[in-house]
Amino acid sequence: MTQANGKAPALFWFRDDLRVRHNEALAAAADRGPVTAVYIAEDPVATGVRPLGGAARWWLHRSLERLIEDLAGGGVPLLIRSGDPRRLIPELAARNGASYVSWSRRYHRPQRDIDAEVKESLRSGGVDAHSFPGHLLAEPWTVATGQGTPYKVYTPFSRALRSVVEEGPGPGRLHLEQAPEGLAGPGADPEGSREDLAELALLPSHPSRREPDWTGGLEQMWTPGEEGAWRRLGGFLAALEGGVGKQGYAEGRDYPALDVTSRLSPHLRFGEISPLAVWSAAAALEADGRDVTVFQNELMWRDFAWHRLHHRPDLATANVRADFDAFPWAWDPGELAAGTAGGRDGRRSNRAAAPGDFHADLGAWRSGVTGIPLVDAGMHELWATGHMHNRVRMVVGSLLTKNLGIHWRHGEEWFWDTLVDADPASNAFNWQWVAGCGDDAAPYFRIFNPETQAKRFDPERTYISAWVPEFGGPDYPAPVVDLRESRAMALAAYEGIRR
């Protein structure tokens, strides 16, 4: 099939790159001919791809809504399907007469294997198929030690990655363009796309889910989509250039009551903005050099997690340090499914819990009723907004895995379900880091004391008061654990596996 302009149709496959600007794969499709775009919700049974958590499903729905409108302006239709892309992509390419198919790369098995099968199937059928970078600052195979092995320690990794980024062809080439040159399609059907999107049943309010609508706080706080991502970046960069308050970003980012962080993580997670575009926009600022460097370090930490996942696809289920396989963490493989079955509120376990049973402690942790105010504040923020300040994430993770002695996988699963920015790399990597069993992890004996952390980083209890107004009153619960005693027990358990 050839269009009147002499160019054959092209098919573009959206995944975690829900943007028009700075999208090399989309630009390549636009260069080849009229573009039809597709998004596929991959069947976890057929593909082995991990299903999204509830908060991420909400974000995806809202982001796709906006992408439909963004593409419709150029007449590009967005087809929304569910199933196995190994079957659907070749079928859609044939149905649309596409001679060219492109997409942005993924880095986690089984997604990598799926993409390789799709590419082989298309090419064997005479369709030109190509993948492009776009989700990371650098491809995992381009950053390696002198021996050609992947880095396992962040500091040397960050030095090597910074060199790759700064010596590259220049990340700013596309990021200010409104759209790839010549992006156009055969005609959009936004209403049909919205109907197909509704069929995915991503929102808790969908009749098939039978859940209470818990998304009010998310709707109030976030604006998913490419425009929202650039607006968020613009506001952050303006603040960064202005000094971000008296403490600056480098120091102020550790104080949860201060609004100095970028909050770009969910936009980056769904690819609504390119990390290279963010990097280059920050680098161009006339701002405090340390603030910019520390912010870029956060972007590189994200890459570090993805590079490690590329080489350790079991990051969400297996200890990186095998000696921790013998650590006596409390673990129940069916607990989360039992706690959330039938649309029930999974914050409290539905398992019968005797006094001292870890299920009760896990339920208290999820619900933010541990009696430890900084932890409770973080868990309340998470439940209300789908987000938690990074400093507080470390504190709540340390309490769960070290003071309460509960397996980090229970925390990883809960964050996967409740964070809008939960991605396969950062979520698992950071949980293993705080638990002490991952790559370049915090030493196990580094146990975050929530009381000390609160005194240092929330000295006026501004953050705690905002999220735990009942603190100090008669209804506030007593602590579920003695911090000093539980720390000693955690260190003794660690000594046990070291011996």
Automatic annotation (TrEMBL):
Transmembrane residue ranges: none
SUPFAM superfamilies: Cryptochrome/photolyase FAD-binding domain, Cryptochrome/photolyase, N-terminal domain
Cofactor: FAD
GO molecular-function terms, A-Z: deoxyribodipyrimidine photo-lyase activity; DNA binding; FAD binding
Region (Disordered): 166-193
Keyword Lyase: yes
Residue ranges occupied by any Photolyase/cryptochrome alpha/beta domain in the UniProt entry: 8-137
Name of protein: Deoxyribodipyrimidine photo-lyase
